[in-house]
Amino acid sequence: MARRQKYPLRVLTNEERTLLVDISRSRSEPVVHVERAKLILAVADGASYTAAAHALGRRSNDAVSRLVQRFNHEGLAALAPKQGGGAPIQYGPTERERVLREFHRTPDRAQDGTATWSLTTLQRALHQAADGLPTISTGTILQILHDAGYTWQRNRTWCVTGQVKRKRKSGTVTVTDPDATAKKT
Fold first, then answer.
1. Domain that includes residue 51, residue range
2. How far is CA 185 from CA 23, 134, 177, 181, in A?
């Protein structure tokens, strides 16, 4: 005889069920999202936590129980994994925004010593600024810029991924690749 579930799954809305079914059938979503969507749907269809876990090749129902509890509180956001160990995240959204603000500022040759940003000159500018980040590393700056969609080009400039300037008879135009994010991941 199975025990009573401590955190039963709440009733799914039609929109949530439709999105969960779409995610569970998707081939382009991350595998973690697909598996979690399948677990939630199995529990919503009346399967026990243990049966849902075994259906996906898992041994324990504890992870299913935690996922259901998280889904009850967060909704579809529970499908995305949280930070899985390691050092705590040191630079949150405000610090990332600060780095991007500094990056978008045109460097002053006299003050910054450069006409274009490199990782070290950007790091130096962030260290010296009054509202800057005195301990940020170039690796962290690189990760923030990559997450924002910028890549380092051979001509030592940063460019938005998927956008390029082309010369035409009518002048210079910006061409955008609609599949750039899909190709990036």
1. 14-79
2. 17, 31, 14, 6
Whether 175 maps to a domain, the answer reads yes
pTM over 0.70: no
Asked whether residue 86 is domain-assigned, the answer is no
12, 44 Cβ separation under 8 angstroms: yes
The radius of gyration computed from the CA coordinates of the chain, to the nearest angstrom, equals: 23
* Confidence class for position 1, pLDDT limits 50, 70, 90: very low
**184 within some domain:** no
Q: How far apart (Å, rounded) are the C-alpha atoms in residues 66 and 58?
A: 14
**3-state class percentages of the chain: helix first, strand second, coil last, to nearest 5:** 50, 10, 40
DSSP letter at 148? Answer: T
Q: Which of 39, 31, 41, 40 is nearest to 81 (CA)?
A: 31
In a shared domain, residues 74 and 114? no
Rounded Cα–Cα distance for residues 11 and 116 (Å): 55
